[in-house]
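Quick check before the chapter quiz. The format below is the same one you will see on the exam, so make sure you can read both the input and the output lines.
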Amino acid sequence: MKTKLTVDALKAEAGAFATLESAHREPALFGVTDGKAIGTYFEHKFREHLRARFDFQEGSSAKGIDFPELDVDMKVTSIKQPQSSCPYKSARQKIFGLGYSVLVFVYDKTDDPASSTGHLDVQHVIFVEKERTADFQTTTGIRKILENAGNKDDLLAFMQERMLPVDEIEAGNIADELLTTPPEIGYLTISNALQWRLQYRRVIENAGTVPGVVRLK
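Here is the expected output.
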């Protein structure tokens, strides 16, 4: 009888799997440079690892995130450019967070011509709690305005300067909310695009030293 997957179990298995995968040599990855293909390989293998031990609801592109019951999405990215995309829902995500936690695997890939295998050295495994998934510069900027007796006009001007993709009415609603509830500091860098572009360098640098950004490996 398999046990139900929990967030704590997911974190433990992520760290253990990263160690296993870092010791593995994979012929199917030899010569592969496409980050999407590498990510797909890694995600499928990690899901198989979990399936052998746990019951859990599997996400899909339609559902949006990998572990919908746990409110966790999985991202696999190269240390050379640690970033990924995620669905854009609203400008509020940049201020209040994505609405789910992010489990990030950061690898360095090398090839061994002698054995014709590829090797993924998983250098970082980091869990970013959903409360910390907003944009760092946006959230710290807003908090500075509020700490400096900022008002609604200051917040609206800041959102305009940051080119937040939001109309005037929603910007006003967000400003009113911020005056009563300052945002938590997020540790992602989120670039404006049709899909959000998430960048993880700050997460890697701060994992284990700030609240809500947990180093698993």
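If your answer matched, good. The first helix runs from residue 7 to 22.
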